Amino acid sequence: MNDELEYTLPDSPDTLTDDELEGDGDEMQALFEHHRVVADKGQTLMRIDKFLMEHLFNTSRNRLQKAAECGFIRVNDKPVKSNYRVKPFDVVTIVLDRPKYENEIIPEDIPIDVVYEDDDLLVINKPAGLVVHPGCGNYTGTLVNAIAWHLREDPNYDPNDPQVGLVHRIDKDTSGLLVVAKTPDAKTHLCRQFFEKTTKRQYNALVWGNVIDDKGRIEGNIARHPKDRMQMAVFAPESGVGKHAVTHYRVMERLGYVTWIECVLETGRTHQIRVHMKHIGHTLFNDERYGGNEILRGTQFSKYKQFINNCFECCPRQALHARTLGFVHPRTGKEMFFTSDVPADMCNLLERWRVYISGRNNEQATS
After folding, report:
1. CA 97 to mean position of chain CA atoms
2. Phi–psi pair at 212, nearest 5 degrees
3. Is 171 known to be catalytic?
4. Domains in the chain, ordered, with CATH?
5. C-alpha dist (Å) from residue 328 to 55, 181, 193, 224, 332
6. C-alpha dist (Å) from residue 267 to 16, 92, 244, 300
7. Strand partners, 233
8. Vertex 275: Cα angle to 242 and 134 (nearest 5)
9. Closest CA to 328 of 211, 195, 200, 149
10. Cβ neighbours for 65, distance < 8 A, ≥ 6 positions apart
11. How far, in Å, CA of 200 to CA of 211, rounded?
């Protein structure tokens, strides 16, 4: 697997985030050399894209031209365009804004649940615990590595090409459906649907507290928490801080100290459901990052504390599942709709709460 052109531009719109940490949009602080070729003394004048095609493997002229447009190809330490002609002794380098080990996607034999696949796309049901994309601390073992393995025999799919691959993302500990584009055209069409909010996405979640209203709408800009960079926070729409975000929710089942809800995303921001629900006082059950792994409702009796600890062990992650996904097929124009069953850990969690509430109600009825 070559590592020459595994570039992803800062703040690239090619992948839309969906309850997943986005980039901060900071300016590049440094450039890292990823490949170096020195033209020999007998080198004839040659366009740099053609020159690199002869020296690099598993890349395309189109990708080289895009790299040059972005200023990632340099000659004698100065950025050049793709029509630059290489001369004898020119030092040609490809430099990116990140160390190359952060971006190189290596195929790994990781089992994935593919619920649909054709020549243009595939839909995957991601399990909780699987990181979607390589990043700080998770350079291998991700869903993207698994997709690269699944499509390793497809000569047209380059896992390091930002024009294909994931269209949106979900958190490591969120389970559910994701769509992956196998061609640039498919990714363009699918990204446009997410951007224009024409996709259909429904999530199920268990949240702390009794959600009083049967349904509701949460609107609030989302940006990094000013004191904790690992969290997001909600700001007033008129504040000018953060990105506009809207979540719709509906109560599915009330279980005493917790509520089973359905959420529909109107936008797709970082940690949107998690931070919006906390904002209205209903943090997701066992959401460690936002304090949902503490007992936020209920009693202080030791029996209840033990019950909650057992629930945390039963579902050791935030109780959030991307259950449905709908979009228009980029080639056929046909409406596609997929549903994923609630995973076993969340089903077991729900059943525990049902048994608990039933037993508590029976005790109250007989007392």
Report:
1. 20
2. -65, -50
3. yes
4. 32-96 (3.10.290.10), 113-366 (3.30.2350.10)
5. 41, 13, 8, 32, 8
6. 10, 43, 8, 38
7. 223
8. 80
9. 200
10. 49, 82
11. 24
The residue behind tokens 């243009």 is 120
Q: Which amino acid is at 220?
A: G
151 Cβ partners below 8 Å, 6+ apart? 157, 159, 182
Catalytic residue among 19, 171, 287, 345: 171
- Given pLDDT bands bounded at 50, 70 and 90, which one contains residue 6? very low
- Measured over the CA atoms of residue 235, residue 239, residue 245 and residue 251, the dihedral's sign is positive
Q: How far is residue 30's CA from residue 28's CA, in Å, rounded to a whole number? A: 6
Cβ–Cβ under 8 Å, residues 153 and 107: no
Pick 303 or 41 by higher pLDDT. Answer: 303
- pLDDT tens for residues 231-253? 999 999 888 888 999 999 999 99
122-137 average pLDDT score: 88
Instruction: Read off the pLDDT band of 2 (50, 70, 90).
Output: very low
- 255-304 pLDDT, tens per residue? 999 999 999 999 989 899 999 999 999 999 999 999 999 999 999 899 99
- Residue with token string 């960079």: 229
